[in-house]
TrEMBL record, chain A:
GO molecular function terms noted in the UniProt entry: phospholipid transporter activity
InterPro entries (alphabetical): Permease_MalE
Protein name (record): ABC transporter permease
Keyword Glycosyltransferase attributed: no
Entry GO terms, CC: ATP-binding cassette (ABC) transporter complex
UniProt source species: Fibrella aquatilis
Top-level lineage group: Bacteria
Membrane spanning stretches: 35-60, 133-165, 186-206, 218-242
Keywords from the named record: Membrane, Transmembrane, Transmembrane helix
Presence of keyword Lipoprotein: no
UniProtKB/TrEMBL annotation, chain B:
KW ATP-binding (keyword) present: yes
Name of the protein: ATP-binding cassette domain-containing protein
One Pfam family linked to the record: ABC_tran
UniProt key word Nucleotide-binding: yes
GO molecular function: ATP binding; ATP hydrolysis activity
Domain (ABC transporter): residue spans on this chain: 2-238
Phylogenetic placement of the source organism: Bacteria, Pseudomonadati, Bacteroidota, Cytophagia, Cytophagales
Entry-linked InterPro entries: AAA+_ATPase (IPR003593), ABC_transporter-like_ATP-bd (IPR003439), ABC_transporter-like_CS (IPR017871), P-loop_NTPase (IPR027417)
Top-level taxon of the source organism: Bacteria
SUPFAM superfamilies: P-loop containing nucleoside triphosphate hydrolases
Keywords: ATP-binding, Nucleotide-binding, Transport
Amino acid sequence: MVTLGRYFIFLGTLVRNRERLKVYLRLILDECVDIGVNSVFIVAIVASFIGAVTCVQTAYNLDNPFVPRNIIAFIVRDSTILEFAPTISSIVLAGKVGSSIAGQLGTMRVTEQIDALEVMGINSSSYLVLPKVIGAMLMFPLLTIMAAFLGILGGYLAGVIVGVISHEDFMTGLRFSYNPFGIKFALIKTEVFAFLIATISAYQGFNVSGGALEVGNASTNAVTASCISIIVADFVLTQLLLA
Amino acid sequence: MIEIKNIAKTFGDRQVLAGIDGSFQPGETSLVIGGSGTGKSVLLKCMIGLVTPDEGEVLYDGRNFLTADENTRKAIRREMGVLFQGSALFDSKNVFDNVRFPLDMLTQMSEDEKADRAHASLQRVGLENAEQRMPSEISGGMKKRVGIARAIVMNPKYLFCDEPNSGLDPLTSIKIDQLIKEITDEYKITTVVITHDMNSMMEIGEKIMFLFEGHKLWEGNSDTLAHSDVKELNEFIYANKLLRELERK
Ligand SMILES: Nc1ncnc2c1ncn2[C@@H]1O[C@H](COP(=O)(O)OP(=O)(O)OP(=O)(O)O)[C@@H](O)[C@H]1O
Ligand SMILES: [Mg+2]
């Protein structure tokens, strides 16, 4: 409870007393590269394989001749867009981006780099953390869209290659009862996850005291706390937006 | 001139500083000495505003730093340079960008002007050839010098150094000490150096303040250091066996 309060106070310091806008543009760009571009590979791999597994698995579970095969593609599409692309990608990113944010800020804390900023009169939390939060919120949705696309593609390729579904059936299922709100929902979730991962990890890193050991612990805590918050937020948002 | 009055700080139920008074003059290198854990770093952090003392005042040429409004505090901050115990260089920036950083953030200078200032500062500490190196690629002594270059690039009126020669070999230590002293004389800076290095005390201690368990027990200079009648101070400086033997002769 105290931690939660401190977390909100920390969020407040991000927006108070900011530096010049020009300073942030550069930093945000750097973070976009760091967070976004460097995560493309891992997200792509995970998304394609999850799509593939979903397709093949669904096919085996649905080997009743009365169920049309195109349902498989329908299931792959919806589960990928609604759940796998935003949530699984975010959990992967919590591991990659969250630990690196916490590690980087934690190291800056214990090596007095944050003190050095403060002494110059720079609001260190907004200077260091705000660009990361904005960078994450800009890049996560793009990664999610990519993940959704690759997930469905992975499902298609696996399905056709393994021979559980034909090209025509997959295309029919893919177009079946399409609801565009699904994508909007996925993007809203992703933005919330991006914000949670970036701020929680930054909070963990920023509040390290001690040395290298504590920095390591902060990274671990950042990933754990981010993952839990993603799962909880996923549940809450699904209730709020889909129910 | 910096004056501190009756500084006290408690962490939890541990009193780290109690009633510390003192004043530091421009163009003079003042040392704060004392054993490990006696509160030297905390005193420095109270002075530069990283720790808020429970009691007391810190005056920068008469301006009360702790109670000043945000603009005055910012103005005072711009007049101080700090060399941290571990140098605290930004490890994502190269040496040159580290030194230029305060100019980027705090001034409206043109690019050329900033580059000139940063070059000059690095030249002053003898590192004009290492400008493009990353902090991870340079030695501890070089890091300290980059730290000094960054601390003086804004032409500070006040310079603070927390153990500028910890972790350095004796020769490099002396060079760093000399550098700090020269810069202090040259630009008439008010310099406060924390140290427990005997060499520094004898070499650059124009004024020395001895802390023991959060209290100021003695004040003097390098000439009077060895002849005090403060028991704790004598134990502190004669902890070194060699010095003890020298004293006996
Ligand atoms: N933020 C803090 N919270 C709690 N205790 C602290 C904090 N900072 C310092 N202390 C305590 O204050 C005491 C004095 O610490 P300080 O860092 O000033 O010592 P020092 O004189 O600089 O020692 P050294 O020569 O080893 O650097 C120590 O016992 C330390 O544990
Ligand atoms: Mg110290």
